[in-house]
Amino acid sequence: MFPERLDAPQAWAIARAMMDGFNRHYRLFRAESARAKHRFETADWHGQQRAQRERIEFYDLRVKECVRRLDKEFQAGTLPMAVWHEVKLHYIGLMVNHLQPELAETFFNSVTTKILHRTHFQNDFIFVRPAVSTEYIESDDPAARPTYRAYYPQAARLPEMVTAIVQDFALQRPFEDLPRDVALVVQAINARLGSVKWRTNFQIQVLTSLFYRNKGAYLVGKVINGYAELPFALPILHGERGGLIIDAVLFGEADLQMLFSFARAYFMVDMEVPSAYVQFLRSLMSRKPRGELYTALGLAKQGKTLFYRDFLHHLKYSSDHFRIAPGIKGMVMLVFDLPSFPYVFKLIRDRFPAPKDTTREQVKGKYLLVKQHDRVGRMADTLEYSLVAFPRERFSDELIAEIQQHAPSQIEISDRDGDGRQEVIIRHLYIERRMVPLNIHLQECFDAGPQDAQAQRALEQAVAEYGNAIKDLVAANIFPGDMLWKNFGLTRNGKVVFYDYDEIEYLTDCHFRRVPPPRSEDDELSGEVWWPVGPRDVFPETFAPFLLGNPAVREIFLRHHADLLDVQFWQSHQERIRAGHVYDVFPYDVQRRFRAAAPLPISQPTSVSGAMP
């Protein structure tokens, strides 16, 4: 209830301290993002990857700093709730002219929930709902860079305009041949637009910061012509001769969705008004949730906030029940879903049956590794939550029994909020985008029969994509560990993505070996492993019996990816990664590249770069 007067003397000081904490966080976050430009210009690929990992930790560090300050200066945990109500109202006042109010709200929530009991996680004390609009936020600083620039080319002068667009980013490394690349871009634009008449409002709008990730920089914008809008992105890379090149033109929402996929590492983007960037990106990808766009921009906590608000909204306007997720049950994770909601919920079991030899903390460490690593479009990002409350009436009794049997330490059923409604409270939870498990997809292809041409094409694509996914993981220095089909999923775009992380290792930490020759006839006839095996020993030639039991799958796999069964494939990649090589894994088909002179065999890795300088 809104207080009649704001008369708690410390409330304003607490609100000011929390805003100071957020401003420090975003200042450091933005500075690190801005330095990505220099790392790209100097080809500091390892530095870029290191910065991407370290930036993920910035937020939690700043939250802890702020909590410590509030405890030290105000004894925050002992203050009455009336004071906290006033703190929130003062904080709203501080956000009125702020350039990142939605991020400041999330920071306030993160700090406050570290101090208050969860019964106070309601809109009176935290921002369950947003309080300040993010519409039309602009900086009044004369030196501020606008969110985007608009260019108005004449048809005959389109090359000049594209050249100006690229040069406006002032990259401090020369292009190999910018006129050549511009001609290719213009050719692609003209081919895409065809004979469409240029309307009076023809223009190109471009976001004013490049999007940096790994070894690439991406120029993102849209072509507007009449009532039509065409999203596009230009990948800028380092060429073989050391200069910069424009590598391709990506057009349309599908291409942009792949570039901003939930299975890829976060971009580094220098943004003063992040909500304006998200609004622009939504005009390019209308199906992409705002939360995923914030996450793709490195603002993962804001992504979590928006996801949870969307989830609560969905719960209110749906009536189906949570259930045990379809598919083969995992030995480490217990998975449930809500059929009407496109995500799955995963919690770690309390006990792991043999042969699993791991702990809860080790599993959490694997998920953190994936969060911080380059996911190369092949590992699903996860949202991690603690103390998540669900309505008890939405849980089936079967699901409750399953959790109580396999993860009793992770569940509580109570009315902790004191509102008369029973809740299921999960202590620690991972949430991932739902995909079709690859083993289920393959079984559907088998069931359709060899006479179904569409099913056979789907089978071929899925098996080939499975091998491509493993090779992309290898290029990112990741060995998936458990390579069974059930641990991979199929996205709506037909990409195969890995999502079971409890056995992943860095490729360079594994010991890839050949199966030694049998010492005797008994060894040769034995159905058991008779040779010594270390904890990180891997024998690629033994993959086939576990993966290729179906003749049709075996034929496709061997045609595309027989090299995955050869120890030399794995050892050669280890050697190159240890030597400092960073592979290119493109977020688009290599055939889209301007310099894709000849089709690459699907069994080859997608690297085209030389050793890193």
From TrEMBL:
The gene is aceK. It comes from the Bacteria. The active site is at D381. InterPro entries: AceK_kinase (IPR046855), AceK_regulatory (IPR046854), Isocitrate_DH_AceK (IPR010452). It catalyses: L-seryl-[isocitrate dehydrogenase] + ATP = O-phospho-L-seryl-[isocitrate dehydrogenase] + ADP + H(+). Keywords: ATP-binding, Cytoplasm, Glyoxylate bypass, Hydrolase, Kinase, Nucleotide-binding, Protein phosphatase, Serine/threonine-protein kinase, Transferase, Tricarboxylic acid cycle. This is Isocitrate dehydrogenase kinase/phosphatase. One of its GO terms (cellular component) is cytoplasm. Bifunctional enzyme which can phosphorylate or dephosphorylate isocitrate dehydrogenase (IDH) on a specific serine residue. This is a regulatory mechanism which enables bacteria to bypass the Krebs cycle via the glyoxylate shunt in response to the source of carbon. When bacteria are grown on glucose, IDH is fully active and unphosphorylated, but when grown on acetate or ethanol, the activity of IDH declines drastically concomitant with its phosphorylation. Belongs to the AceK family. The lineage of its organism: Bacteria, Pseudomonadati, Pseudomonadota, Betaproteobacteria, Burkholderiales.
